[in-house]
Specification:
271 residues; alpha+beta; Spore Coat Polysaccharide Biosynthesis Protein SpsA, Chain A; eight-stranded mixed β-sheet; three-stranded antiparallel β-sheet; 17 strands; 38% helix
């Protein structure tokens, strides 16, 4: 793994900017721990990690804040990737490397939902023994709580033709929930080119940053269905021929009123 990372860095010279908007006045300890450890970890491989965050609870225009953060990230010299992270996500530093190595325009971890699908157990009480058997046979080394939680959590993902073909833990999907998503700067530039009517100007940003101010995150209604700003962002990418990818080897934890520790890979692993 070490040599693979060094080869990638030598060939592509990655430079990442993490963007995150929080509607609270502060970030959680788990988020900050992931952030600080990631910066130190990437620094060991000479991968710069810039950080653009907003935690102003008085700014109620969430879409505008996200687009401003994206403009700031795109204006950083030698930037190659933007990492979009929700403020209620915690991760391992190696997960950023995994996204980089996927080498896709738009690739994401699979984010767990904040709901448990108890019907899986109610409709089939014996399924817990099946999950336990899979964990032992596949040497997944998960404890009892992890085995249970991985399988009964719902995951925000849509398959293409009900199939998921994986290569190096990466597969193409119809949609996913943004939350720990890596975007190539070339992808964002293509969106800017294809959606010129989204251009705006913000006097609070520098002239250089205003070169990248496009309202690409914007909620709206299509065919009587509401889509949030993240969904519209991904739909725009798909509408110009872009594809969406997930890396199933990444496990992220969603923090809310409790911890939702997800592992999509474990949830789909069979004997």
């Amino acid at each position: 793994m070490e040599q693979i990372i060094k080869k990638y860095v030598s060939e592509y010279n990655p430079c990442v900017c993490l963007i995150c908007h929080s509607e609270n006045d502060s970030f959680s300890l788990s988020f900050m721990s992931s952030l600080i450890s990631s910066k130190d970890f990437l620094n060991n491989y000479n991968i710069p990690l810039h950080i653009e965050v907003s935690n102003n609870s008085n700014d109620h225009c969430r879409n505008k804040v996200k687009n401003d953060l994206l403009a700031k990230a795109c204006s950083i010299q030698k930037i190659t990737h933007v990492l979009y992270v929700n403020d209620n996500i915690c991760w391992n530093p190696i997960d950023i490397i995994k996204l980089l190595l996927s080498n896709k325009y738009c690739v994401s971890a699979v984010i767990p939902d904040t709901t448990f699908n108890w019907d899986k157990i109610y409709n089939n009480p014996d399924i817990i023994n099946q999950w336990k058997q899979i964990n032992e046979i596949q040497n997944l080394n998960n404890n009892a709580e992890e085995v249970l939680q991985y399988h009964i959590l719902n995951y925000n993902i849509g398959y293409i033709d009900n199939n998921l073909n994986l290569e190096n833990s990466t597969g193409k999907v119809d949609f996913f929930k943004m939350g720990f998503t890596l975007l190539k700067i070339d992808m964002i530039k293509k969106l800017q080119l294809c959606f010129p009517r989204t251009k705006y100007y913000d006097e609070k940003l520098s002239k250089h940053q205003n070169n990248n101010t496009y309202f690409l995150f914007n909620s709206g209604i299509e065919k009587n269905t509401y889509f949030n700003e993240n969904d519209i962002f991904l739909k725009r990418w798909k509408n110009i021929g872009g594809t969406l990818w997930i890396n199933v080897s990444i496990n992220v934890t969603l923090t809310n009123t409790q911890y939702y520790k997800g592992s999509f890979y474990n949830s789909i692993t069979q004997i």
